[in-house]
């Protein structure tokens, strides 16, 4: 455990003490600043579609829920069900 810690510390110290800065090491001497930047990606063709419901003050949702037996290969399962609708109030 101690030898792994010493090895990791030595590697970190070596990488930090290298004489070439990161920015100099990553830039290409051939490409100028105008060639090194990529163009922005094209805009999304389809925006996310959402259904928004804004009922008036006189509407509210009424829901009925129940449990239903469903017969499956692993055995009978009690499964929750729900049905909702808009009601004028």
* Mean pLDDT over the full residue set: 76
**Approximate helicity band:** 25-40%
* CA-CA gap between termini: 71 Å
What is the ordering of alpha helices and beta strands? HHHEE
Question: Describe the biggest sheet?
Answer: 2 strands, antiparallel
**Shape, principal axes of CA atoms:** flat
| Uncertain ranges | none
Helix-strand makeup class: alpha+beta
DSSP summary: helix tally: 3
Name the beta content range. 25-35%
Total number of strands = 2
Would you kindly provide a written description of the structure presented here, covering whatever features stand out?
Helices cover 27% and strands 31% of the residues. The chain has 89 residues and is α+β, with helices and mostly antiparallel strands. The chain has a domain at 57-89. It has a two-stranded antiparallel sheet. The protein is flat and about 75 Å long.
Structure characteristics:
27% helix; alpha+beta; single chain; 89 residues; 3 helices; two-stranded antiparallel sheet; flat
Produce the secondary structure layout:
Layout: H1 2-16, H2 22-26, H3 33-36, E1 59-72, E2 75-88
Antiparallel strand pairs: 1-2
């Amino acid at each position: 455990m101690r030898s792994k810690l010493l090895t990791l510390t030595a590697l970190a110290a070596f990488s930090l003490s290298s004489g070439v800065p990161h920015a100099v090491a990553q830039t290409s001497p051939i490409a100028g600043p105008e060639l090194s930047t990529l163009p922005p990606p094209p805009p999304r063709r389809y925006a996310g579609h959402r259904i928004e419901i804004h009922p008036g003050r006189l509407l509210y949702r009424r829901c009925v829920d129940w449990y239903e037996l469903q017969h499956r290969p692993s055995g009978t399962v009690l499964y929750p069900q729900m049905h909702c609708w808009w009601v004028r109030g």
